[in-house]
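Field notebook, page 284. I keep forgetting to write these up properly, so this time I am using the form the group agreed on. The chain and the ligand, iron/sulfur cluster, are recorded exactly as supplied. Prediction of the bound pose follows.
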Amino acid sequence: MTTPEELRSTVIPDWCPGCGNHAILMSVKGAIADLGLDPKDVVLVSGIGCSAKTPHYVKTYGFHAIHGRALPVASGIRLANHQLTVIAHCGDGDCYGIGMEHFIHAMRRNVNITVLVHNNQIYGLTTGQTSPTSDFGFKTKSTPGGSIERGVMPLILAIGSGATFVARGFAGNPKHLRGLIAEGITHKGASLIDILQPCVTFNHVNTFAWYRERVYDLKDAGHDPTDRARAMEKALEWGDRIPTGVIYRTERPPLDDLVPALAQGPLVKQPLERDIRPLMERFY
Ligand SMILES: Cc1ncc(C[n+]2csc(CCOP(=O)(O)OP(=O)(O)O)c2C)c(N)n1
Ligand code: SF4
Ligand SMILES: [Mg+2]
């Protein structure tokens, strides 16, 4: 059994002190340990952003992809070897901006991957511009007069796209987040956990204190995540009160179970029926 400490890689996190990403890192390592997963069977995939550094810091397999493309890479890995646990780490810009089309289709296809969005409502890595989840009126260096756009609502978008597991966590509550990530990993199908992740350097509005004043746990509120209409209502709730926990959950066979070629076992373990060398040679 691997402990969270054993999952620490040799790369030292260079996130700003106090950044919400530290708690997400701790929580994902905790969830992998709680589930007794063997690190050699786990792949962390990311796009580009501060959030995207997460795979560097965990001693599992990892793939640092390009901006917005964590989800097609994660889906491809899972379909090539559906015995692996595949966890994607995206930023809000990464997943709900440049990668939005991949997000919608990943939810619709329901490939068995876990999607963790480090949602700090800002572009962190590029030093503080508005992101697709920035609130109306939010002032940054790209919107000095305040954003005149409305933010997207990722959870309602996920449900509308056909997601089978939709949740929200908060980096200020890592114990709860750790449990949510474990639930997402064990869910059969694509799972989305949108994580409120304060960026202490560039977002001075949506701080730990700001979120803490507003978040509440849906379990305590008696929410039934299998009720789609109620889930839609909760997914729309944003402002003075922000729900956390599992918002929506349903069962639908993941794509991995439906692809005929995977019925004979993982693609990577199947013999190649054709000599692909002539094809490969064309690309060299
Ligand atoms: C194709 C492409 N466009 C733009 C960029 C520049 N860029 C790097 S990270 C980023 C946004 C980062 O914000 P977010 O996805 O929210 O991640 P965070 O840093 O906040 O974790 C942008 C626009 C890039 N690397 N590649
Ligand atoms: S810039 Fe923001 S998101 Fe990036 S490491 Fe610093 S605090 Fe975290
Ligand atoms: Mg961001």
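OBSERVATIONS:
- The radius of gyration is 19 Å.
- Residues 171 and 201 are 15 Å apart (CA to CA).
FOLLOW-UP: compare against the apo run.
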